[in-house]
């Protein structure tokens, strides 16, 4: 536990001192400014536009962070051999992987909270009332989704180059959001082989749309009872599985 | 004596490129390190030294064979308790400062948070980096980064210190500092194992030596026994020899050569009877102009191709080629001096 904590703290320091993080936050700030001006042009209310933009921004920044920092957090360690300094000490590789994940996840969570806070303050200041409390559920589910993406970025980094790992992570994200379409395709397939492949893909890939309650939040629609908790458990289990798989791969890797 | 690191018949095969071509980095290497001794690890570039060290540290998995470190399997993290590794290049997190780097390393090495501060000051003082605690690692010169690397290796009172070419690219003051440190660590009873190209360091610091070449073990034993292997015999310089004395001496297995118009050099290998040769010369009225021990430089012995074998051949009076063949076979089956020679 102590080792994981040390690795996590070091990873957190590394990411908060990374210029990429501030560039991503800059993107979020630009989107905020755009959202404030788009509010008047849209048929939706200003709160709806800003909530929608806010959640979309968090999703985008989370993805950018997971891809650009997440891949580098392990890939660069292996490429730069800084990993030697840690693994030559009495440190298990699984502790290292979990520590890396935790450090990056905390950075992402703080980043999300910061953006959410800015948006909530902006909305409250502009329209004179706070947005729906459901927005916090949406942020929470975005975090769960991003924990899967970070774990995936770490897993790809275990056996390929940082560039390929970034491409694979982006593809994983896109495929995860298209999971419902994969099910639909499998249903209409007549070729049993293709059907089997699509069914396997449906079960292997995460269903990232499960974490998306943006529409409900923006339009004030109710979120199904227990959905947030189910999605959070699903996210945690999927993340744990990816981290376990990463640890197995990393334990077998020659450094 | 206890073996603190035991390498048993390890082989590492890498698969390179798209066609996964086999590359044998290390083949059937066995040796052990005795506790409390300083052992040098030498061999030319590509000999497999770094791969062997990485396997010992659990960074690379051997294709076959086994390694125990501090009595535990090298793959287990627990085996690295009390072991320090200093890599050839300093690999640091560039976002950290000197004190953060040492602090992080200390905590990973198992130093408690209360003792970490004092421990960091102690090692930074030992490598003369005091006053640079707040500097970013990326702003340090290569030499200073290597000192910092050494400082991280000294943390947590390690029993075994493994260095991979620790002095490469260092300026003379840093080399001097490192040599002094090695001696001090050795005097404290710690076990040191370091790879180097600089044979001067081996002679000056090490008690034992392990020689690797082409991924195979060529020698393991004490530095003194290696130097002994380099003793070719006794060289006697005499005036030109009368009659058929030269032929007689050659028939006795001595090497006779004319070094100049009025001098002949006779090499008496260590196995031959020097007194008998001197008696024969005396009986024929030949008096020695000079007599001295002839040894092979350590550099030739280690890097001169088959010179370790040639020295054996000269000393045994056997055919060099036959000795080379025999040694090659021995290396394939675990080494002539074999497993645990450095013990």
**Rg of chain A computed from alpha carbons, rounded to a whole number of angstroms:** 20 Å
Biggest interface pair, residues each?
A-B, 24 and 30 residues
- Please give the number of β-strands of chain A: 0
Shape of chain B: elongated
The percentage of residues in β strands of chain A lies in under 5%
State the CATH topology of the largest domain in chain B: Rossmann fold
Q: Helix content range of the residues of chain B, please?
A: 25-40%
Can you tell me the CATH superfamily of the largest domain in chain B? P-loop containing nucleotide triphosphate hydrolases
What number of domains of chain B? 2
Number of helices of chain A: 11
Q: How far is the first residue's CA from the last residue's CA of chain B?
A: 7 Å
Secondary-structure-based class of chain A equals: mainly alpha
User: What proportion strand of chain B?
Assistant: 25-35%
The multimeric state of the shown protein is: heterodimer
- CA distance, first residue to last residue of chain A: 24 Å
State the major sheet of chain B: 6 strands, mixed
**Count, helices of chain B:** 12
Spell the H/E element sequence of chain B: EEEHEEEHHHEHEHEEHEHEEHEHHH
Overview of the molecule:
The complex is a heterodimer of chains A (255) and B (343). Chain A is built from eleven helices and no strands. Chain A has helices at 2-16, 19-38, 46-80, 83-87, 93-127, 134-157, 162-177, 179-188, 192-204, 214-219, 227-251. Chain B has 343 residues and is α/β, with parallel strands linked by helices. Chain B is 35% helix and 28% strand. Chain B has helices at residues 49-56, 98-108, 113-126, 142-153, 172-187, 199-205, 223-229, 245-251, 274-283, 298-303, 307-316, 320-332; strands at 3-16, 21-34, 38-42, 64-69, 72-73, 83-86, 160-164, 191-195, 208-213, 216-222, 231-238, 255-260, 263-269, 290-295. A six-stranded mixed beta sheet of chain B has the order 6-7-8-3-9-10, sandwiched between helices. In chain B, strands 2-1-4-5 form a four-stranded antiparallel beta sheet, covered by helices on one side. A four-stranded antiparallel beta sheet of chain B has the order 12-13-11-14. In chain B, helix 11 (307-316) crosses helix 12. Chain B is elongated, with a radius of gyration of 25 Å. Classes of the chains: A mainly alpha (255), B alpha/beta (343).
């Amino acid at each position: 536990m102590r080792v994981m904590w040390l690795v996590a703290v070091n990873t957190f320091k590394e990411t908060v001192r990374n210029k990429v993080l501030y560039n991503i936050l800059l993107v979020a700030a630009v989107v905020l400014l755009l959202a404030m001006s788009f509010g008047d042009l849209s048929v939706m209310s200003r709160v709806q536009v800003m909530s929608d933009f806010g959640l979309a921004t968090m999703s985008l920044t989370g993805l950018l962070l997971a891809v650009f920092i997440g891949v580098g957090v392990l890939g660069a360690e292996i490429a730069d051999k800084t990993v030697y300094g840690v693994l030559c000490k009495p440190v298990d590789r699984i502790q290292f992987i979990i520590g890396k994940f935790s450090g990056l996840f905390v950075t992402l969570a703080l980043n999300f909270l910061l953006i959410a806070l800015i948006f909530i303050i902006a909305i409250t200041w502009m329209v004179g009332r706070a947005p729906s409390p459901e927005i916090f559920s949406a942020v929470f589910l975005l975090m769960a989704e991003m924990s899967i993406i970070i774990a995936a970025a770490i897993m790809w980094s275990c056996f390929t180059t940082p560039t390929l790992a970034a491409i694979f992570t982006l593809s994983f994200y896109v495929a995860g959001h298209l999971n419902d379409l994969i099910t639909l395709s499998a249903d209409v397939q007549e070729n049993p082989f293709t059907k089997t492949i699509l069914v396997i893909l449906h079960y292997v890939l995460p269903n990232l749309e499960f974490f998306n309650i943006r529409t409900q939040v923006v339009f004030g629609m109710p979120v199904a009872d227990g959905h947030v908790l189910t999605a959070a458990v699903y996210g945690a289990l999927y993340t744990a599985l990816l981290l376990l798989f990463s640890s197995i791969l990393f334990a077998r890797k020659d450094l | 004596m206890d073996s603190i690191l035991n390498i048993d018949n390890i082989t590492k095969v890498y698969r390179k490129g798209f066609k996964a071509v086999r590359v044998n980095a290390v083949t059937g290497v066995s040796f052990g390190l005795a506790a409390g001794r300083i052992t040098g690890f030498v061999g030319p570039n590509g000999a497999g030294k770094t791969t062997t060290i990485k396997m010992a540290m659990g960074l690379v998995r051997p294709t076959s064979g086994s390694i125990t470190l501090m009595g535990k399997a090298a793959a287990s993290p627990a085996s690295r308790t009390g072991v320090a590794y200093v890599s050839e290049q300093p690999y640091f997190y560039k976002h950290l400062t000197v004190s953060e780097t040492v602090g992080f390393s200390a905590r990973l090495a198992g130093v408690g948070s209360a003792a970490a501060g004092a421990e960091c000051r102690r090692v930074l003082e030992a490598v003369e980096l005091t006053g640079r605690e707040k500097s970013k690692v990326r702003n340090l010169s290569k030499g200073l980064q290597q000192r910092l690397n050494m400082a991280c290796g000294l943390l947590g009172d390690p029993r075994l210190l493994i260095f991979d070419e620790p002095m490469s690219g260092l300026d003379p003051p840093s080399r001097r500092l490192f040599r002094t440190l090695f001696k001090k660590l050795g005097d404290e009873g710690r076990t040191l194992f370091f790879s180097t190209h600089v044979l001067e360091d081996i002679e000056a610091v090490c008690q034992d030596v392990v020689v690797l070449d082409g991924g195979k073990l060529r020698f393991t034993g004490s530095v003194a026994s290696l130097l002994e292997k380099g003793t070719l015999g006794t060289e006697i310089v005499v005036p030109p020899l009368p009659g058929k004395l030269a032929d007689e001496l050659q028939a006795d297995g001595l090497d006779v050569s004319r070094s100049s118009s009025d001098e002949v050099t006779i090499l008496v290998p260590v196995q031959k009877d020097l007194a008998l040769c001197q008696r024969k010369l005396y009986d024929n009225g030949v008096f020695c102009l000079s007599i001295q021990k002839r040894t092979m430089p350590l550099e030739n012995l280690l890097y001169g191709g088959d010179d370790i074998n040639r020295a054996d051949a000269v000393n045994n009076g056997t055919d060099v080629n036959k000795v080379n063949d025999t040694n090659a076979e021995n290396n394939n089956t675990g080494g002539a001096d074999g497993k645990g020679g450095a013990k």
